[in-house]
Structures are given as structure tokens and as C-alpha cells.
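Annex B. Sample input.
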Amino acid sequence: MMRVNKWVQGLLAAGLATTLTTGALASITVKDGMGGTLASGVTEFDENSTGSGVIIGGGPGTPPVVGQIQDLLYQSNVVGFTGGSSSALNGSFASGGYELTLVAHLQLKVTNVALLGGGAFFATFSAVGGNAGLFFDNAAQGGLKSNTATGNGFDDGRLIGMFNVLPGGVSAFFGTGPTTGIGSASFSFQTVGMVDSNYLSSSTGAITGINFTSNQSLPAGTSQTTSFHNNAPNNWSDMYPTYVVGPNDVLLKVDGSNTFTTAVPEPSTYSLLLAGIGALGFLVRRRRSD
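Annex B, continued. Sample output.
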């Protein structure tokens, strides 16, 4: 067996270790978990405009305070794909349909507040913690189709991806009055473990992250719901316990979308790998000549 010196081993190890440090937007294949392809060439998930968000204890009509940490719960189902299509998406489970749902629990820190008079304000937020789960559900998984009004069926399918929020991001909200307002948000998440490739995969590599952007509005309108993460009795997991919306909570209409990232080597990583491979080749040639 050929012996490789420790310098070359170090180069290769360093190069391989840094291969997964950056991400590129990915084209996704959606699968049914049993070897069948449901949609391919998907570059974005379009979530339902009736997605719901709730700020726990936000106090309707009360402007946020700088430094305050707010808990935000979110749930929605995917209604369409950009770059791909699937007629079975959100079809009847009994007829071969399926659904994809995203749920999240985020901790947001209030970074700035400007009081504008008459109950109006402008505030910005930054993510300091939290996570999101992506679920797949169909007849085989045995869950219920998601229902905005009741909050049922959003996290009772197969958990196919778990993501931790990357600190930072940006969210802004303009409260136009005590109980009205509009806002937007953009956050990035990093995978915890692996995304289940039996349901989501990419030809450019392992899926390493998910990006979330959204618009919000108050009052919630068609996104009105009584609860969040209300699991069915036969759910696969209970990652997100049920939360019943209370009178001191702020309920939002949230229209979101998702893109995915995969691991790609940085240019410097390519150089490092080539240097290591070149050195390895030199040692092989010298070994043969000896």
C-alpha cells in the first residue's frame, strides 16, 4: 500500500472539509419517497397566500420595543413551483395527490422602532434563533390535508427536512394604525442533518439550506386561524407542539416563498484540492520510479 505523507493528507483533508462551506441556488427534484418523480427543475416553492403567522404576546395595537425578543410561529402549504409543475400537488390524497408544508418557530429581536404618531410605527427585526420544518404528506403518510382555519394538518406528514435559522436576516413592519399594517421578511436556514433525498434532491449536490422570503399584512384576513401546528393523532412526529391563538397575540397574513441551496466548493478550495492532488500524483510517480 502506498504511503501518503502527512502534508498531502492535510491538504486533502482541508480541501474536502471546506468543500461544503458555501451554497448556490439549486434546482430541485420533488419525489414521492418510493422512487417516483413528482416534479423536476423546480427553482422555487410558492407558498399559499393564506399562510399564517402569529406573534405570541405581541399585544394588538402595541408597538414593539427595541431589544425585545418576539416568538413568531408560522405555517403554510406550497401551492406551486417555479421552473417545474405537478398536477398532483394539493390534489386529493385518495386520488394520488400530495402536499408540502412548511412550519417554523422563530425568535426575532427588535432592532429599531420609530413611532410615527396616531398609533403608527415602523420597526425592524433580526433573527436570533429558531428553526423550520418541511413536511411531505399523502395517502401513504396517513396525515390530513392542511386547513388554514383550524391549523390542522401542517406538521402531521413525513418530516423531510429540518433547518436552523442563520442569525441575522431582516424583517420590517410598518404599523399603519393600532391593528393594521404591512411588512416583509427575508431569512436563511441551514440544514440540521440531511434533507431526505427520497423526497427532495438536487443534481448539484446535497441540499444544505433553505431561503425564506415573505410579505405580511394585518389584519390576517383569509389567513385567520385558531391554532398553529395542530397535529393529527397519527402524525409522524411532534416537532412543533400545538399553540392556540390567544387574545394578546398578533395574527398576521403571511405570503411566502422558498429557494434552496446546495454545497459548492469555493474557488480557493478548488486550488487547495488541486494542490493536494498534484502533490499526491508526484508522490505516486516517485514511488513507481523507486
